[in-house]
Amino acid sequence: MKTLVASEIESYAQAHSMPESDVARTLREETQRTMEYAQMLVGPLEGAFLKMMAQLVGAKRVLEIGMFTGYSALCFAEAIPGDGRVVTCEIDESSAALGRKHFANSLHGKKIEIRLGPALETMRELAGPFDVIFIDADKINYLNYYHRALDLLSPTGVILIDNVLWDGDVLKQPPPDEKTAAIQELNRTVAGDPRVTAVLVTIRDGVLVIREKASV
Ligand SMILES: C[S@@+](CC[C@H](N)C(=O)[O-])C[C@H]1O[C@@H](n2cnc3c(N)ncnc32)[C@H](O)[C@@H]1O
């Protein structure tokens, strides 16, 4: 799992945060056993943070960009009411299939709608408002996702963007590759966007928490 925090600190923080559900743990363990790049899933501590954010804004509708095997989608589903909805976008059918299998074992699984295909196209088709929009895929398009997310966000909603510290590479000038450059551009754009307020939280690989100014 990606983290910039010392592993003992990460474990301590995790032990003193809300625990993951049994289904989330089983899904995570199977992902770690069977999938390449299992470190992509957010894990128990960031999962708890996402749940807390959803609960704080009283979320009913959540949009996720980047489902992978569904760990974070399940966290969101567990945090919203019975008539809530998590729409999660994923391009890889085999990753989604693993999630689907585990969602069937959760009381909350029926709240999750999987949209297969390129997320930017899906976002263009979707109508808002969403109370939480979690962006965690395809770093090159981060800025495009951010702009579309602002159109889809409810006035009291929150946008959460993952991996905005990119393993510390955001400090490098010039950026070593396209993905780092895209994340640096996103962070600069959000920090200078007069429509929003944001805080870059140093949890795991960095999460940018953004809301519209009018809602404060
Ligand atoms: C970092 S992982 C998501 C992890 C997930 N949020 C979790 O915590 O379990 C990113 C996922 O985005 C998917 N992805 C990449 N490009 C995409 C695109 N253009 N549209 C939709 N999904 C995409 C990848 O297949 C991968 O499964």
CATH hierarchy, class: Alpha Beta
Q: What are the distinct ligands in this entry?
A: S-adenosylmethionine
Largest sheet at a glance?
7 strands, mixed
Number of helices: 8
* Fourth-tier CATH superfamily name: Vaccinia Virus protein VP39
CATH topology: Rossmann fold
Strand content: 15-25%
Global outline = globular
What is the string of SSEs from the N terminus onward? Answer: HHHEHEHEHEHEHEE
Distance between the termini: 33 Å
Q: How much helical structure, as a percent, in the residues?
A: 40-55%
Care to count the β-strands? 7
pLDDT averaged over residues: 96
Plain-language structure description:
This protein has 216 residues and is α/β, with parallel strands linked by helices. It has a single domain, classed as Vaccinia Virus protein VP39 (Rossmann fold), CATH 3.40.50.150. A 7-stranded mixed sheet has the order 3-2-1-4-5-7-6, with helices on both faces. Strand 1, helix 4 and strand 2 form a beta-alpha-beta unit. The longest helix is centred in the first third of the chain and has 14 residues. The radius of gyration is 16 Å and the shape is globular. The mean pLDDT is 96. The structure holds S-adenosylmethionine. The site of S-adenosylmethionine has 18 residues, from helix 4 and strand 2.
